[in-house]
User: Fold this.
Amino acid sequence: MSKLEEYRQEIDAIDQELTRLFEARLKTVLKVGEYKKQHDLPVLDASREQKVIAKNVNRLEDKRFEEELTKFFQSMMNITKETQQKMME
Assistant:
């Protein structure tokens, strides 16, 4: 097996775990959305989003990926906001 194949297998294993975690996150997001709906709270909490991003950027071991991780969390939070908005309608 070539090095490229090994790297691709490693990425596939990581993607499998990311998918599992993303699904778990979305299930929890739906619970948050239900709470917000019951308590008449808005979907968007901009200060919370910034705290989540900052907290996770601080967790990075390799700070070269700060910009990429920020984009990753922004994209993921956009998806979760859309998910909450759909369930609240």
Summary: The helical segments are 3-38, 46-59, 66-88. The chain has a mean pLDDT of 96. The radius of gyration is 16 Å.
